[in-house]
Amino acid sequence: MNPQTDLDIHQAPRQIAAAPPDALQAAMLARVLDEIDHGLLLVDLTGRILHANHPARRELAAARALRSVEGMLCAGGARGQSKIRCALKDAEHDCRSIVELEPEPAGEALSLAFIPLAVLHGCASIDTVLIMCSRRSGCETLTMQMFARAKRLTPAEQDILSQLCAGRRAEEIACLHGVCLSTVRTHIKNLRQKTGRSSVRELVRELSRMPQIVSALRLVRQD
After folding, report:
1. CATH code assigned at 208
2. CB contact at 8 A, 100 and 87
3. In this structure, are residues 103 and 76 in contact, taking their beta carbons and an 8 Å threshold?
4. How far apart are the C-alpha atoms of 165 and 161, rounded to whole Å?
5. Fewer CB within a 10 Å sphere, N or C end of the chain?
């Protein structure tokens, strides 16, 4: 047998690789989007929701500034709904925009970026809009746990750090846990020493900038 021919025969299985089925590609894309800690929605120009990742579904379920009504994207109030309509109208003309929605009842506002897209479906092009939600404050539990393990934090120190990342002051934490303020301050001092950070603000900022790793358990319990 010709050595070159023999080599080609052995290489053939590597060269002929079937493309993953569309269903597998869609499932993989959905899984990737669920790992992103910003809410992501894909809607058509009427506001009908075509897809929402896990943080977006969580935002819709909370129904603070954003909600789903019969599959349509809706704001909590008339003013917010008007902003969404204007943003979708801008997207129809291929213009990007950012709107801010006030939650009901009062709380942390939600910013939305509207990005027009053209998605190919067969031979036709479907006008869609990608909506990116602002990230809610705080830090994913799994990210916190991995950081605490890497820095050898005690369970008490990790709990204090979690409260600090939630925006609570030392006095609030002491009251919440029913301990002396001096105890909380000692834990904070230990946190700064173990992490090499000069202030709580610097430490919290570092944690908030880390990749926010979601728990696989969270993804199993989807709405």
Report:
1. 3.40.50.2300
2. no
3. yes
4. 6
5. N
Contacts of 157 (CB under 8 A, 6+ apart): 148, 187, 190, 191, 194
**Are 211 and 193 contained in the same domain?**
yes
| pTM score, whole prediction | 0.61
Residue-wise pLDDT for 107-153, tens only, equals: 678 899 999 987 555 555 568 999 999 876 666 677 888 889 999 99
Does residue 99 fall inside a structural domain?
yes
Tokens encoding 171: 């006095």
